[in-house]
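Illustration 12: ATP synthase complex subunit 8.
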Amino acid sequence: MPQLNPNPWFFIMTLSWLTFSLIIQPKISSFFSTNPPINKPHMTSKTTPWTWPWT
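Figure caption equivalent — predicted structure in token form:
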């Protein structure tokens, strides 16, 4: 079965992965800027305890 022979496909996968991670990914990442953190007040929600019917 040709699917079990990793000879050509492992090299293609490795080369594709290296191309993406070393060349394409840094170029794409430079276009996206991260959002600056926003100082928001911490909102605490009021919770009520759960009443279990069998206790």
